[in-house]
Amino acid sequence: QVHFVESGGGLVQPGGSLNLSCAVSGTMYEIRDMGWYRQAPGKQRELAATIYGISTEYDRSVKGRFTISRNNAKNTVHLQMNSLKSEDTAVYYCYAVIVATWGAVPTPHWGQGTQVLVSS
Questions:
Q1: Angstrom distance (rounded) from CA 62 to CA 3
Q2: pLDDT (tens digit, 9 = 90+) per residue, 47-71?
Q3: Do the Cβ atoms of 12 and 118 come closer than 8 Å?
Q4: With contact defined as beta carbons under 8 Å apart, do 31 and 23 qualify?
């Protein structure tokens, strides 16, 4: 059983900042990729940022404004979001690709989501 604890969402004015955090716990052998997807109202879920080892990837709409980081010892991933825009309003979902036991197939798991609302 894998458990996610997400935090850091909320209401912020345009131009403001938020820092999302996600901690993953449970019985597992390894976590591969970690990151954040987001889903705006009426839209499909899309990748915001992901990190695997020291490699990061960002959606071009957030590049230069968002920074993803990870603490492997604590199984946590963070998303520092700066210069927020109204179009960043969405539910942000933490995800982790987990290998449950040695030799198992890596499988994506999702948190429950945290709301980010950018509005004046």
A1: 27
A2: 999 999 889 999 999 999 999 999 9
A3: yes
A4: no
